[in-house]
């Protein structure tokens, strides 16, 4: 089955009799997201369930790179599937019904939209779209009020319409974004306050209430094949809420600077789509139920991140238990941010290898490169240059059929950066000698 491998995804399963919902990770032997969905649906139907929704479907190496904190739990799932065993479901996590565990619970729903293409010139298209069709409903649809919302506002007629907000990063478009916002005639305001609001005008996050028929909205969702498109800039995040502008600003100002358990302050760049997506994908929803309830409060209905190739929708479903009184960083958060930094480094590593060592990059899969980089990390080659020299030394040794572990031991000494530099120098000498002898 050429092209097939283990794929992983997050699934929300529903019992056929409607008695309970369950969340679990699934591994499927597949060659595409479509094959993943098809085989998963067929498998769960045989055991009395249906697939309510599924998201974050990726080949196992890419899934592990994105979810480093859960790789230990999901790796056995990926290894369990093969041509003779197509589907393996992870440990059952009850979300409702009779099988629901006691204690506080939070259902963090995550939906991934694939193959979303930004708007182009739209030649011959009338009326012109202001947002890609796949994002129209998530970002500008008007869902029916929930029972909780009706109760909160008193009656159905009193429930406000669903609004769309963006939190955009001026630092990604300095001296331009603020001018575009001013010209847009949309309501907007910096999330910074006081002196920082003026001094950091071109680096601040800006809350904007978007209107679907506004030209600035169209510009946000237009790609490089359109006119003045901003899609590739990945300027920020999108929020769906029934709350007014002032309430949304007040809510998100709480997160611009956050404290840890020792009282130390940090800047939390939640308005960066990659930061917020990685954080929400990797937070432990049950252990951090109070924190998630604080983040979403009763204010945020949906939190949407739009990036090139990845569009993710986050929302809270069934929730129980207390809500935290403040957002405070703890050790679990530090682990997530550490993994995020490592993920950023891996992306940079792929780009650098592809640019500087195309022959090495083509030797193996991304997953195999990630495994080598993880080996470097475990052996304390943690700086970017040390890890890079370790990885390219390992790949070159494999290419030349050299004993990498022997060379690694022979070059030991000094700091990890010095060790990795010596290792690369020795490997290069072997390569040059081989070319000379040839």
Automatic annotation (TrEMBL):
InterPro entries: DUF4123 (IPR025391)
One Pfam family per UniProt: DUF4123
Ranges where the DUF4123 domain occurs: 165-287
This protein's name: DUF4123 domain-containing protein
Biological classification of the source: Bacteria, Pseudomonadati, Pseudomonadota, Alphaproteobacteria, Rhodobacterales
